[in-house]
Amino acid sequence: MMKYKGYYGHVVYDDEAKTFHGEVINTRAVITFQGKTVSEIENAFKDSVDDYLDWCNERNKKPEKPFSGKFVLRISPELHREVNLHAKKENLSLNSYIEKTLRQNVGV
Length: 108
Fold this sequence. Notes:
It is elongated and about 55 Å long. The protein has helices at residues 38-58, 77-89, 94-106, and strands spanning 2-4, 7-14, 19-24, 32-35.
């Protein structure tokens, strides 16, 4: 995984074409890049992110931020109730309890 200016690039190797292909994965905007060597793919990733930011700037558009820290989660009412009960038992808000649980499971 590559990181540059808050954007993450995921790379795969195409053994038939002998080329690396990558895509920025933490944004809805489609940002791709490619190269034949590690150095080329690293530079192409940075160039693609910079090109995207320049493109947005030229059009007075706000670049899409990699992630806001907010997301909507739809669960059953029964699970919602149970998670809320667990949060209350730990004297936490529902949001804090869910964040704590996610961090424990993801290892962050």
